[in-house]
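Dear colleagues,

As part of the handover before I leave the project, I'm documenting each prediction I ran so the next person doesn't have to rerun anything. This entry is a single chain, and its sequence is reproduced below.
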Amino acid sequence: MNFLMYVVILGIVEGITEFLPISSTGHMIIVGKLLNTEGLSENFMNAFMIIIQLGSILSVVAYFFKDLNPFVRDKIVFKEKMTLWSKIIVGVIPAVILGVLFDDKIEELFFNNTNIIAIMLIVYGIFYLFSPKLEAKSTRVQSIRNVSYKDAFTVGLFQCLAMIPGTSRSGSTILGGLLIGLEKSVIAEFTFFLAIPTMFGATLLKLLKMGFSFTGIEWIMIFSGSVLAFFVSLFVIKWLMGYIKKKSFRIFGVYRIIFGIIVLIFFNVFK
């Protein structure tokens, strides 16, 4: 398989799965193992899967620009948006601390372990089967403005669970938000916002560790994959924000369980 096809497939997979609660990293690792990666080092492939998430994160900035942009003339609106950003920063603190301390160890233990990925897909899938009951009870916070600093930090703690591939960053934060009473559209939106500094930080950390030492073709692959992920993610964000207004997250639980079982069987029986 040529490098272009590798970029196209993983760029689309990243764009579709980054903001759905089904684990983008887990999907990319699984898909990456099924592709012919001859000529690509394992270090580059691992870095590629993290760095192209930048494209998806930029799609959040583009989609929610009016909601996030604090540089407005209205002082009240400016204060509200700066308050929102301060809550986002509070929410990302746990991931920053754990990421800096344990990123290498977590990657070593879990990153290419298909059994761990499959188990996490299934376990969180089971949790999502009960999401309609959680959604019905999660009415304490019904506006993004009413998310407290405590709520933001707690959601940030749940986000750290996604350091294990197969968990899903959005999946863990959405479940965490529902558990503490955030209405489903509120936690979905806050999850998007929280992704911005989290994934920017993860990308920067990976680039610093790699020393920016990519070949010319590798930089082209990273740029192309990021651009593709950006446009696919824009579509997915728009679709998801409309979907959750009408339906529950339960369907994602069903998908996770089915996909997790397929991964377990395939990599333990046929590979």
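The CA atoms of residues 174 and 187 lie 6 Å apart. The longest helix spans residues 75-110.

All the best with the project,
I.
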